[in-house]
Amino acid sequence: MILDIETCPDGQYYCFDDKKCKPIPKGKKVGKNGMLETTELKNEILSRAQKRHTMAKGKKLKDVMAKGKEAKEKLYKTTRDKGVRFYDKKGSGYMKDGKKKYD
What we know:
Elements: E1 12-15, E2 20-23, E3 28-30, E4 36-38, H1 41-82, E5 84-87, E6 92-96, E7 99-102
Antiparallel strand pairs: 1-2, 3-4, 5-6, 6-7
């Protein structure tokens, strides 16, 4: 039975010295040439956290855009139905068709 890099399951690497698959130790990864390479665990954790943060930020953007669209529709509806908001010495109200309506 011949083992090589392709036959090892996920989470394991092929040890050329012992000629068998072994679990990948923490802080190491399998390089392009099949050899173990040292990685900084801190950088790996930070990159994962940044990826999760970016994904969460993307979801929130959709919510923000939806709320903005609702506010825009509300403003346009108020302007069409009631008119434009105004403030003067007598008070405040809405102006529609050139006529002032006080609150």
